[in-house]
Fold this sequence. Notes:
heterodimer; A: 6 helices; 74% helix; globular; B: alpha+beta; six-stranded antiparallel barrel
Amino acid sequence: MSVILSIPVLGFISILQSAVVSRLPLNHGTADLVLVVLVAIALQKTSTTSWQWSIVGGLFTDFISGLPFGIFTVSYLIATGIAHIIRKRIWRFSFLMQLLVVFSGTVLSHGMAYMVLFLQGSNISFITALQVVTLPSIILNFMLSLPIFILIQDILEQVHPQE
Amino acid sequence: MNIRFPKSLRIIAISLVAIGILALALSGVFTTFSRWVVSPMTSVQTWVSLQYQGVENFVSASQDIREIRQQNTELEAENARMQAQIVELQQQLVEFKILSALLEFARANPEHQYIGASVIGRDPSPFLNYIIINRGSDDGLRRGMPVVTQNGLAGRIVQVTATGARVSLVTDPITKINVRVEPSRSAAVLSGSITGDITLEQIPQDADVNPGNLILTSGLGGNYPANIIVGQVTSVRSRENDLFQSASVQPVTDFSDLSIVLVITNFEPVDFNPLIPDSGTP
């Protein structure tokens, strides 16, 4: 998919994340729509520009978020890297791989956010953060993963039809 | 043999026959006869009339059904429009209630100048309790301006763009606000957490703090104006060996349902950094 296309698509998804998804928490966790979309794109065999999409998605989310700039970009790039490794190593990957990468990406981005807040002097309990923020966020991301994975797969099959 | 009568005689004869028949008919002689003739005619006419009405009804009814269906479609569309209008009006009513409450708050606190703003988003990271509002530097907003709701303090602006601003809520884990407890006027520090709970820390051991006491901004530190209500004490934790008491606070603002806020524009946060001596200076 074209890199230019990533700007309006991920821009809209970032707006959707801030305006809608972040207002629908489970306990204190929220889904990361951008991460789920980027992982679904990175896991498709026909996708050739997933790195660029990750950078664009990360930059959009970093612009919207109050966390130090770059945290989302770095965590999305690492999640894309994990997806690429899985894509190369495993011949026939399934939807479970999407869950695995989404889990890794969520833990990674939350870990980085936790570290930043800890360094800024916030006395957040690690166990509390895990229980009330990270685990509910993982569950929400899992719930979003299946429909988004199927949607991205269908779109990419339409864009790059297999012979 | 053909007998030809004069024309006038024929007319008279026919007239007499007609008058005779009429007289007989009026006298009732033809009644039985007419029954024999008229009854089957009536039956036939009734049957024909019924068939005709059936055909007429079929033709006109199909036209009526078309009209009824058209009317039904129009009514359904109107109903949908009315439903949408009701939802819109309900939404406007909620907004109106919030705006009137905000106006009341502004009237009750005339020492401040306010700009109203709508909440258009939240921070994508669940670790930060930030909201995004639709007013920015183009509207005169600046970093550090306090943000309130009709109930009390909501937070302060931490970042401004031309058309939007990011507001750190009082429940944010990094937030620290200097407050005082009423009626004892004890000073304390309010801090947020990732769970959205806010706690009161560094309350002196000798301070008389009880559940139900009000928490107001003290104005110390220069980040917030004084006397803005923040919450109410729900429980107090005090141990003899601790230096300070702590307390749980119920915020007055419902942060899960923020839609419209007021930004206090005539408050200048005080920057103490120039007064802090460098570590190298004697």
